[in-house]
């Protein structure tokens, strides 16, 4: 019976364990009839193979059909025929009893796996896969055992993305009891769970184990090291835990191992044998730790090392210079120390990332001389020093260079002898930020016409110059990220900077800019705009819609206007709006309640007056400290505030009890106001409160609450100074129950 499922691919490929010769033979009549009936049952819009099938020609000559010497149909390939609808168990397809290879890939077959597949007793390999729509293909049989129990000669089983949904003891036993000669086990994204059952150990012919994207949630058993023919082990994203058996790494046949994205899996690397066969090693996102063994240099066939986001420490082994086949080296976010070794022998290297470690010393220009295929180099967030080698800019295919957050000194290198690809190629990314680079900013950097990302911020550059003088910057039509913060630029932000249609991130903060041209600005794509800590003055700029800015920072300038009443109508998509430390006056406009995505609003350190609107209680963070506000509307019942700072105003306490609606409050600062109220016991059910500041108000009475056992269990900071509290603090209540103050976090 056909079960219709839309937008998925039913992909069955059946291969024999020996090569099947393509022989033109006289087709057997009943098999030709079965094929024609099968074609008639299919729904397809376009065909390059099925169109050749007709009764007037020998079926062994049809495109996609291969026969044996005696005319039996052995191989059927109707992949990529735009077939839709399903195949049910009564299909004449299952009358082809000698069929050994069936390929229905790249079609849209809406059905479960027909139970009649069990009639094809000559199967040697089964593949069941899905289309790009990632809809689960379901078993037509009641369980995995019923599907495979007749396929005793099966060598390769591919059930990727078939919804099997069985426990470890079920699917392991089903496979081991029915498929004793299995070589390839591929069941990724099958909704399998663990633990691995010991019955799998019977499958001594296993060469490939691919079980990624399942919820195994168990250790990897030691008997995996007994699979002497194992070449591929892929357990990506299986929620594995425990300690990984070291012996598996030492299997002489092992070519590829992927244990990545198993955040609780521990382990360390062994001593690797000479001339090891391993080609691909991915441990990223695990808890693997310890030293990288010097014997890793024995793996001369290794092309990919991915160990980012682990806990490895110690030096990068110098023996890695032996890895001449290396293409991808990803070692970011560990605790590696020492110098950067030479990779000049890795002539095929494309991507090298050793960022976020503790590497020290200089980087020798000769280390990179032969890397003619290198496209990405990231050494950011280390402790590297010395000059930035100008030779890096001569690498012919380099398009992403990140040396940020180190201690490089000396001048920013003049980019003169750059490759033509670097000069004109697309998507060039250059980040030299947060170093100790000195001297003037070389204008030659802006000759890199393919710039996609340019970040030169936070160095010790000298020589103030107007932003408008960067004429070559105008030609960067591909620019998406520009960060020139803290680079001594001054003058105006010219109108032409808004003409970059692809610009998404612009940071010009911490400079001496004093005016902003914004005639006919198109900010449709701009996502992040940071202009804080400059010398802008006058009115807060309001851009013309449509405006898609999500992060907007005008803080620490000299704006002295009111907040425009339309600000919330223009910046409808803003999530972070920072206007603090200006000279803004007037009221807080109600239009700030209009952006549904607004989460953080900082209006602190201004001269605003009037009321804090009720609707702002929908934010996550609201900071209006140090203004002249006199009133706060009551907070709504669906208050979402986690941080509220209204300190340093002239607010009285009429609103106070409505704070009980803010059940997610973590930080509450009411200090330096005119609040006359007793100790706020009405907040005792706000269990998330970590910081409570009441200082310099007119709170009075005892510091106590009745029945306070467990009140504010995570409270760590409280400031009650300069109020009118009186009496003793009763033992066993309030202050004495705040255990979080006694623990280190």
Automatic annotation (TrEMBL):
Ribonucleoprotein as UniProt keyword: no
Residue span, Leucine-rich repeat-containing N-terminal plant-type domain: 30-68
Top-rank lineage group of the source organism: Eukaryota
GO terms for MF: protein serine/threonine kinase activity
Major localization listed first in the record, in broad terms: membrane
Membrane topology: Single-pass membrane protein
Keywords: Glycoprotein, Kinase, Leucine-rich repeat, Membrane, Repeat, Serine/threonine-protein kinase, Signal, Transferase, Transmembrane, Transmembrane helix
GO-annotated cellular components: membrane
Cleaved signal peptide residues: 1-25
EC number(s) reported in the record: 2.7.11.1
Any Pfam family hit: LRR_1
Protein's cellular compartments: Membrane
Record flagged with keyword Repeat: yes
Protein name (Swiss-Prot/TrEMBL): Putative non-specific serine/threonine protein kinase
Natural source organism: Rosa chinensis (China rose)
High-level lineage: Eukaryota, Viridiplantae, Streptophyta, Embryophyta, Tracheophyta
């Amino acid at each position: 019976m056909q079960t219709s499922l839309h937008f998925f691919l039913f992909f069955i490929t059946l291969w024999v364990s020996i090569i099947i010769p393509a022989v033109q033979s006289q087709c057997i009549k009943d098999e030709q009839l079965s094929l024609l009936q099968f074609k008639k049952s299919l729904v397809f819009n376009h065909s390059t193979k099925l169109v050749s099938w007709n009764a007037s020609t020998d079926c062994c000559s049809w495109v996609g059909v291969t026969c044996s010497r005696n005319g039996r149909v052995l191989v059927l390939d109707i992949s990529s025929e735009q077939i839709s609808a399903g195949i049910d168990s009564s299909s004449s397809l299952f009358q082809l009893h000698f069929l050994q290879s069936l390929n229905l890939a790249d079609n849209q077959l809406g059905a479960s796996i027909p139970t009649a597949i069990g009639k094809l007793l000559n199967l040697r390999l089964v593949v069941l896969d899905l289309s790009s729509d990632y809809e689960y293909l379901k078993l037509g049989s009641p369980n995995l055992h019923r599907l495979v129990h007749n396929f005793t000669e099966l060598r390769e089983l591919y059930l990727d993305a078939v919804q099997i949904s069985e426990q470890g003891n079920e699917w392991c036993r089903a496979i081991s009891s029915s498929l004793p000669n299995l070589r390839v086990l591929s069941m990724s994204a099958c909704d399998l769970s663990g633990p691995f059952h010991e019955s799998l150990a019977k499958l001594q012919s296993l060469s490939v184990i691919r079980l990624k994207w399942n919820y195994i949630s168990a250790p990897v058993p030691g008997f995996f090291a007994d699979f002497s023919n194992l070449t591929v082990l892929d357990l990506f994203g299986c929620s594995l835990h425990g300690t990984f058996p070291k012996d598996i790494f030492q299997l002489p046949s092992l070519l590829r191992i992927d244990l990545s994205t198993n955040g609780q899996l521990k382990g360390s690397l062994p001593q690797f044998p000479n001339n090891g066969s391993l080609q691909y090693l991915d441990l990223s996102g695990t808890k693997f730790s310890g030293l990288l063994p010097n014997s890793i240099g024995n793996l001369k066939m290794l092309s990919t090392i991915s160990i980012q986001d682990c806990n490895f420490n110690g030096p990068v082994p110098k023996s890695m210079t032996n890895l001449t086949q290396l293409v991808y080296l990803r070692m970011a976010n560990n605790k590696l120390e020492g110098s950067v070794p030479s990779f000049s022998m890795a002539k095929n290297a494309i991507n090298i990332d050793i960022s976020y470690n503790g590497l020290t010393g200089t980087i020798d220009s000769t280390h990179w001389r032969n890397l003619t295929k290198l496209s990405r180099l990231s050494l950011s967030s280390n402790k590297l020093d010395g000059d930035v080698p100008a030779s890096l800019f001569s690498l012919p295919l380099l398009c992403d260079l990140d040396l940020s957050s180190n201690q490089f000194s000396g001048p920013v290198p003049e980019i003169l002898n750059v490759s033509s690809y670097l000069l004109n190629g697309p998507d060039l990314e250059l980040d030299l930020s947060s170093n100790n680079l000195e001297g003037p900013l070389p204008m030659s950097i802006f000759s890199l016409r393919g710039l996609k990302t340019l970040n030169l911020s936070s160095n010790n550059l000298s020589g103030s110059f107007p932003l408008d003088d960067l004429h070559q910057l105008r030609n960067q039509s591909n620019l998406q990220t520009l960060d020139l913060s803290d680079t001594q630029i001054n003058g105006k932000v010219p109108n032409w900077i808004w003409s970059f249609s692809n610009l998404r991130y612009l940071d010009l903060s911490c400079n001496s800019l004093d005016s902003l041209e914004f005639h006919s600005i198109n900010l449709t794509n701009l996502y992040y705009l940071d202009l804080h800590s400059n010398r802008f003055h006058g009115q807060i700029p309001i851009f013309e819609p449509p405006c898609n800015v999500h992060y907007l920072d005008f803080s620490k300038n000299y704006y002295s206007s009111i907040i425009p009443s339309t600000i919330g109508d223009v910046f409808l998509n803003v999530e972070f709006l920072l206007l603090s430390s200006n000279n803004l006056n007037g009221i807080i406009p109600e239009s700030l309640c209009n952006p549904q995505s607004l989460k953080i609003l900082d209006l602190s350190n201004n001269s605003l007056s009037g009321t804090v609107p009720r609707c702002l209680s929908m934010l996550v963070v609201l900071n209006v400290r140090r203004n002249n506000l006199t009133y706060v509307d009551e907070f709504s019942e669906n208050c979402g505030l986690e941080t509220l700072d209204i300190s340093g105003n002239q607010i009285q306490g009429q609103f106070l009890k409505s704070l009980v609606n803010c059940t997610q409050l973590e930080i509450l600062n009411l200090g330096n106001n005119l609040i006359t109220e007793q100790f706020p016991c009405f907040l005792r059910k706000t269990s998330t409160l970590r910081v409570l500041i009441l200082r310099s108000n007119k709170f009075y009475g005892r510091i106590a609450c009745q029945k306070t056992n467990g009140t504010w269990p995570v409270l760590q900071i409280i400031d009650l100074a300069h109020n009118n509290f009186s009496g003793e603090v009763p033992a066993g209540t309030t202050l004495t129950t705040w255990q979080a103050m006694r623990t280190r976090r």
